[in-house]
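Listing S7. Sequence submitted for prediction.
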Amino acid sequence: MTMPIDVRQVDWLYVAILALFAFVANLIANLLFFRRRGVAAILAAVLFATAFVFWTYYPHGLPLPTLLRAQKSTATTTNNLPAETSPSSAPQRPSNPVTDITPPSSNSR
């Protein structure tokens, strides 16, 4: 039986960091609202979202796993681009394009 996810491709550092964020957010929320589970769950979600946005989008200069992957994929796609095509090699239009999409009439006798 094969798994649909290739675990060798998973960025385990990123998964560990997100799991740590979720754990800390849940710990803080449950310490603040021990007897109120609904409020603690909402607070944990807000704390996790805040930590995730800070880690992913704030320009703090840390090497982030998602940014490293994006930089690698950008570098490989720019290296694999074909040479620029000339304007004369623009895609050709079909000689008989269908421009009218009319359903067949049901009254054909």
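Caption to Listing S7: primary sequence and predicted structure tokens for the chain studied. Residues 12-76 form one domain. The helical segments are 12-32, 37-57, 65-79.
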